[in-house]
Amino acid sequence: MKISAVALFAVVAVVSSLVVMHVQAAVNCGQVDAALIPCIGYLTGQGGDSPSPSCCAGVRAVKELAQTTADKRALCSCVKAAAGRSAGLNDGAAQSLPGKCGVQLSIPVSRTFNCDTIN
User: Fold this and answer.
1) With helix as H, strand as E and coil as C, how does the chain read?
2) Could you read off the pLDDT tens digit of each residue along the chain, which spans 119 residues?
3) Which of 6, 17, 51, 70 has a CA positioned 20 to 30 A from the CA of residue 39?
4) Would you say 27 and 71 are in contact if contact means Cβ atoms under 8 Å apart?
5) What number of helices (H) and strands (E) belong to the chain?
6) What pTM did the predictor assign?
7) What is the C-alpha separation between 65 and 75, in angstroms, rounded?
């Protein structure tokens, strides 16, 4: 019986650590990039004055990813990295995107913001 209890404890410990690792890594840049791809046209001035419905759906999806301070910081870093990679990005369009989609993000959309200051 002792071996079974030890085995059960080991399984619970492994599962618990996997759950903690999953929670800590809830936001990844691949998710953020995929959600915001439909916004590229609007953000570069190639898609008109308003973001598309699929872009706004992506903005809403991104907002749902940011539940904790760690999530918000990770999301901020992903958005900042994506903005840095996007040639021709219009900073004004990027900053206005959440509002044009009727979404209030808990992070700024900026290439220069210090994401570590998010609480």
Assistant:
1) CHHHHHHHHHHHHHHHHHHHHHHHCCCCHHHHHHHHHHHHHHHCCCCCCCCCHHHHHHHHHHHHHCCCHHHHHHHHHHHHHHHHHCCCCCHHHHHHHHHHCCCCCCCCCCCCCCHHHCC
2) 444 333 333 333 333 333 333 445 579 999 999 999 999 999 999 988 899 999 999 999 999 998 899 999 999 999 999 888 877 899 999 999 999 999 998 888 888 889 999 98
3) 70
4) yes
5) 6, 0
6) 0.74
7) 8
pLDDT value at residue 56: 97
pLDDT value of position 30: 95
Read off the tokens for 79: 């958005």
Listed as own residue / partner, the contacts of 75-79 with beta carbons closer than 8 Å and 24 or more positions apart are 75/27, 75/32, 75/107, 76/107, 76/108, 76/113, 76/115, 76/118, 77/29, 77/115, 78/27, 78/28, 78/29, 78/32, 78/33, 79/32, 79/36, 79/107, 79/109
